[in-house]
């Protein structure tokens, strides 16, 4: 049962109430649970996905330790800004476009 962290940005208050009822709010929009099993994590994510499907505002990312995933980190994300996360030599990196000028 790995630690799970959820970070929200610019979302409705219902997310804060829901996540605060199942996880510790470390800072506004940052939630953690030290030992969450996969079933609970998936149920929480399904609620967040359903709400986001109706509200479509802000962004949410969930991360947890996952030895089977690239870089050992499981990730789920909703909303903007989208990040292009790639695996390189066993590490996860964020790919950004180079701006000319």
Short description:
With 101 residues, the protein is an alpha+beta fold. It has helices at residues 13-22, 38-55, and strands at residues 4-9, 24-27, 30-33, 59-65, 73-79, 84-88, 91-95.
Distance between the termini: 47 Å
Proportion in helices:
25-40%
Oligomer designation: single chain
Number of strands: 7
With helices defined by DSSP (H or I, 4 residues minimum), what is the helix count? 2
Q: Bin the strand percentage.
A: 35-45%
Please list the strands of the largest sheet in the order they lie side by side.
2-3-1-4-5
**Sheet with the most strands, sense and barrel status:** 5 strands, antiparallel
Helix/strand structural class: alpha+beta
Features:
alpha+beta; two-stranded antiparallel sheet; 101 residues
Notes on the structure:
There is one protein chain. With 101 residues, the protein is of the alpha+beta class. It is 28% helix and 38% strand. It has helices at 13-22, 38-55; strands at 4-9, 24-27, 30-33, 59-65, 73-79, 84-88, 91-95. It has a five-stranded antiparallel β-sheet with strand order 2-3-1-4-5, covered by helices on one side. It has a two-stranded antiparallel sheet with strand order 6-7. A hairpin with a 7-residue loop joins strand 4 (59-65) and strand 5.
Write the layout of secondary structure elements.
Layout: E1 4-9, H1 13-22, E2 24-27, E3 30-33, H2 38-55, E4 59-65, E5 73-79, E6 84-88, E7 91-95
Antiparallel strand pairs: 1-3, 1-4, 2-3, 4-5, 6-7
């Amino acid at each position: 049962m790995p630690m799970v962290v959820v970070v929200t940005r610019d979302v409705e208050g219902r997310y804060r109430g829901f996540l605060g009822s199942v996880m510790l709010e470390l800072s506004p929009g940052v939630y953690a649970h030290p030992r969450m099993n996969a079933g609970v994590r998936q149920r929480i994510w399904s609620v967040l996905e359903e709400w986001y499907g109706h509200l479509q505002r802000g962004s949410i990312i969930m991360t947890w330790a996952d030895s089977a995933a690239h870089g050992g980190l499981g990730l789920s994300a909703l909303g903007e800004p989208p990040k292009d996360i790639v695996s390189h030599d066993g590490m996860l990196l964020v790919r950004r476009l180079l701006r000319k000028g």
